[in-house]
Amino acid sequence: MLSNQPASLSQPQPIESPDQQNVKLKILLVDDHAIVRVGLRQMLLDAFHQLDVTEAGTGQEALSKVQQNGWDLVILDINLPDTNGLDVLKKIKTLRPALPIVVLSFHPEEQYAVRALKGGASAYVTKDTAPQELDTAIKTVLAGHQYVTPSLAQRLEAMPIQSGGKPLHTLLSDRELQVLSMIGGGKSVTEIAVALDLSVKTVSTYRMRLLSKLQLKTTSALIRYALTHHL
Q1: How do the domains of the chain map onto residue ranges?
Q2: CATH number, domain 2-159
Q3: What are the CB-based long-range contacts (under 8 Å, 24+) for 117-124?
Q4: 137, 123 contact by CB (below 8 A)
Q5: Do 186 and 180 contact (CB within 8 A), yes or no?
Q6: Class of 168-228 per CATH?
Q7: For the whole model, what pTM was predicted?
């Protein structure tokens, strides 16, 4: 069930834990920036009476904690130092299919929201709209619903009609899109290989696939494409 009510701009009201009996709501917060985690933790503590927040700074750490403990909710960033958050999302849903996940990212909805929802996320929230949007999304997800913003709901409804006219990058795999984004950010093949823990040859192969799928001829053209589409 979808909920696309806009976030309230009023002060978030604290809500009780699921069983109202002093049992703490357990949330796993996954973000590679400590300062962001501190801010999110405080926002969550302000919004919930009974809360136990555990932090993870990498995808591997998040997967380890998911395997070791039970959680009521995961808040997951896309940009992690060791892997793509969308890959972590899929692995978590394999390990814990019923575990709700809210993806929180600085990337705009048009980049990753649809991919995240298809990958099993219960909500996709951009960091520039938090905390109001995040507060609404969490409460909606904990109530057993999927949360989408009004703009994303419109995009989802329009997708089947517009499928033939989508930008070429919507046909890329998650990893290909990640490599394209890093190329657009000015990183070299070697730098991308180190960041993603891949061989230079593998990244070069991704680069060739991108050139083919996007119908481009040079790395400079890939950079321009990524910048033009805000990737």
Answers
A1: 2-159, 168-228
A2: 3.40.50.2300
A3: 117/146, 117/148, 117/156, 119/86, 119/89, 119/90, 119/93, 119/174, 120/89, 120/90, 120/92, 120/93, 121/76, 121/89, 122/146, 122/147, 123/147, 123/148, 124/148, 124/152
A4: yes
A5: no
A6: mainly alpha
A7: 0.64
Task: Calculate the average pLDDT of the chain.
Answer: 81
For residue range 38-80, what is the model confidence (pLDDT) as tens digits? 988 988 888 887 889 999 999 999 999 999 999 999 999 998 8
**Residue type at 142 in one-letter notation:** L
For residue 11, pLDDT over 80 is answered with no
User: What is the spatial distance between Cα 55 and Cα 2, in angstroms, rounded to a whole number?
Assistant: 28
Distance (Å, rounded) from C-alpha 77 to C-alpha 33? 10
Model confidence pLDDT, tens digit, residues 170-208: 788 888 888 998 888 888 899 999 988 889 999 999 999
